[in-house]
Design goal:
Blueprint lengths: L4 E9 L2 H9 L4 E5 L13 H13 L3 E6 L8 H14 L3 E4 L13 E4 L8 H9 L4 E3 L6 H10 L3 E8 L11 H6 L16 E4 L5 E6 L6 E3 L4 H7 L3 E4 L6 H21 L3 E3 L4 E4 L13 E2 L21 E10 L2 E4 L10 E4 L2 E9 L2 E4 L10 E6 L1 H7 L4 E14 L2 E8 L4 E7 L10 H8 L7 E8 L9 H23 L17 E2 L8 H8 L5 E2 L14 E3 L3 H4 L17 E4 L2 E8 L4 E4 L1
Parallel strand pairs: 1-2, 1-11, 1-12, 2-3, 3-4, 4-5, 5-6, 6-7, 7-11, 10-14, 21-24, 25-26
Antiparallel strand pairs: 7-10, 8-9, 8-28, 13-21, 15-16, 15-20, 17-18, 17-20, 18-19, 21-22, 22-23, 27-30, 28-29, 29-30
Helix pairs in contact: 1-2, 1-8, 2-3, 5-7, 10-11
């Protein structure tokens, strides 16, 4: 018998509303920020809201993961420990962490996931964290499909990969520019996003290679064309980035990937969703219609030049056509897209709002400097956003009813799509009805609107046309559904053991500032795993003259100066990036195909 692998679509949530809509639109799991210590400091949530989200998600056997993925100082450890216990009491399914010192605290029996901030990009690290007790690890975005496949073959832990959303230029957890230049640590949830600023690139001779371009700003990730390939490589969880994004983005991106996965599941029965219920969408999802900087598959199939967004770090949206004619206070487009009043259009870093549309004439609120033939993009679709602001999806679990009679009355059995059942009986004197009861029985038992269920089949096994009042049928339906929900809730309870101390060897014997060791518990953790020399975190003791960012995004390659690709175009090093008063030196490790920023 072939084993069916449960696949998880993991959606982001800035707050409770976004989390509920992620579930409604098809997410198998949602990750959301803890009240404190989240890598998105502005996206924290109350324990009360977390508990509400957990209760809603668990109706569909979907999971809720809590992001507590910053590095902690010694004074914060006690607060973090108490917070983890509080999160556990909400019923959340796992906690995402970056700081392994947490594993040496007194912990409840809850699952832990290794954050992308832990810079997990090789099999040795995955094996280490698997043995340390993590039930899921988030792989680095920079990995190729072959590297992911190789890791999956040698490990057993669930592998989570990003498939959509914003890209950090640096390996996650290995970026210190924000801390160095502004005192705002990315590892503490306060990244100032220096990668989105404009820079001038200058070589050692003072030659300008690029002027005032967003050279470190990347396009957004979109792996929607490669989902099946990722599943075949061994990936279990497909993650959408966006804990700072609005609810409409969550709705659109979740629905889009849900539909993609459903198509795969139809033809590949060895894969199935990890949660219950069908998301019914009332719109056609399209990721180009939500915030995006253009899309790239990044390094999934090797290095390519289509990863940067140097003209603007803002959303470009979807292409809508080329400027055909410019006349005074209006213009026309040679495209197939319909433009609406209130749409936002842009070219490069310039954006403008459409005041009104008359036929094919587009009247901007203020006329921008357009040129005939230039391509315009729509980065705000008024009609699409209006659709998403209302009820754009609902989620229902398929259920069958079996109505039977017994010696003292009637019974109703509910069986859901996961084969959970509940039976409720009611005592009622049997008397023949004057009219046929079939239509009323179906009508009363089908009234499931305020529940997560949707009736698929009703089997009536009554031997006679007995009279059953509508009130009795309604009571029977309500009690059966309530009992089935209780059965589903009990089925979710899977007792875990708290993570136990481990003592296996760490892949490295020495940790520099790149180890992000910020407290004594973390030092203790690494010592018990054989690390002999441990340097403090950059945030604690900034070392001098060290790289502040490590990235596979190489500017020499991007701009056509790669010595492997174009040896006839040498660049005199060192190169520097200039932005305001900041001067950043570049180092190129051509053997590793990596760039470092110092």
């Amino acid at each position: 018998m072939k084993i069916v692998r449960k696949i998880e679509l993991l959606a982001p949530a800035k707050h409770l509303e976004a989390g509920i809509e992620a579930i409604n639109h098809g997410a198998d799991a949602v990750y959301i920020g803890a009240p404190q210590f989240s890598a998105r400091s502005s996206a924290g949530n109350s324990l009360d809201d977390i508990q509400k989200l957990v209760e809603y998600a668990h109706l569909f056997h979907a999971k809720i993961y809590i992001a507590l993925n910053t590095i902690l100082n010694d004074k914060e450890l006690a607060t973090a420990e108490q917070l983890i216990w509080d999160i556990y009491r909400t019923g959340a399914d796992a906690i995402i962490i970056q700081d392994p010192g947490i594993l040496n605290l007194s912990l409840p029996p809850i699952a832990f996931h290794a954050s992308t901030q832990m810079d997990i990009r090789n099999v040795e690290k995955v094996l280490f964290w698997e043995k340390a007790g993590f039930s899921q690890v988030v792989l680095a975005r920079e990995l190729t499909i072959d590297e992911i496949r190789d890791i999956a073959k040698q490990t057993s832990v669930a592998l989570e990969v990003f498939v959509h959303g914003a890209l950090c230029t640096s390996y996650s957890g290995q970026c210190y520019i924000s801390q160095a230049l502004s005192g705002r640590s990315a590892n503490r949830g306060e990244c100032a996003q220096y990668c989105r600023l404009p820079y001038t690139l200058q070589d050692a001779e003072g030659r300008i290679l690029a002027s005032q371009k967003h050279l470190l700003s990347l396009k957004d990730l979109n792996q929607s064309d490669y989902i099946e390939e990722l599943l075949d490589a061994g990936v279990t969880s497909l993650k959408i980035e966006g804990r700072l994004k609005d609810t409409s983005y969550v709705k659109n991106s979740t629905a889009y990937y849900r539909q993609k996965l459903n198509v795969i599941f139809e033809k590949r029965p060895e894969y199935c969703a990890s949660s219950s219920g069908e998301a019914i969408h009332y719109f056609v999802p399209n990721p180009q219609k939500s915030f995006n900087r253009g899309f790239t598959n990044y390094f999934l199939h090797g290095r390519n030049k289509d990863i940067a967004s140097p003209d603007s770090p803002k959303s470009i949206g979807e292409p809508v056509g080329n400027v055909a004619e410019i006349k005074g206070n209006y213009f026309t487009l040679s495209g197939q897209k319909t433009i609406h009043n209130g749409d936002g259009l842009c070219f490069g870093a310039t954006g403008f709002r459409v005041n009104r549309v008359e036929g094919n004439k587009i009247f901007p609120a203020e006329m921008p400097r357009l040129r005939q033939g230039m391509t315009l993009y729509r980065n705000y679709n008024h009609e699409f956003e209006k659709t998403l602001s209302g009820k754009s999806a609902e989620r229902k679990i398929r259920i069958d009813f079996l109505l039977e009679e017994n010696n003292f009355g009637f019974s109703l059995t509910a069986t859901d799509e996961d084969a959970y059942t509940a039976t409720i009986a009611v005592a009622f004197k049997k008397e023949p009805a004057e009219k046929n009861q079939q239509a009323n029985i179906r009508e009363q038992l089908s009234k499931l609107g305020n529940t997560p269920f949707q009736l698929t089949n009703l089997v009536n096994c009554l031997t006679h046309n007995w009279f059953i009042p509508s009130s009795v049928l309604s009571e029977l339906r309500r009690n059966t559904v309530t009992t089935l929900l209780r059965v589903r809730k009990i089925a979710l309870r899977q007792p875990l053991q708290p993570i136990q101390p481990t003592y296996h060897s760490h892949p490295e014997q020495e940790l520099t500032y790149l180890g992000n060791v910020f407290n004594e518990k973390t030092r203790e953790f690494y010592r018990q795993h054989g690390v002999e020399k441990i340097s403090p975190a950059f945030e604690q003791s900034p070392p001098a003259n060290v790289p502040l960012m490590f990235t596979k995004h190489c500017l020499k390659y991007q701009l056509g100066y790669c010595p492997k690709q174009t040896p006839q175009k040498p660049v005199q090093e060192p190169c520097v990036l200039l932005s305001g008063n900041h001067k950043l030196r570049l180092q190129f490790d051509c053997k590793k195909c990596e760039m470092r920023i110092c």
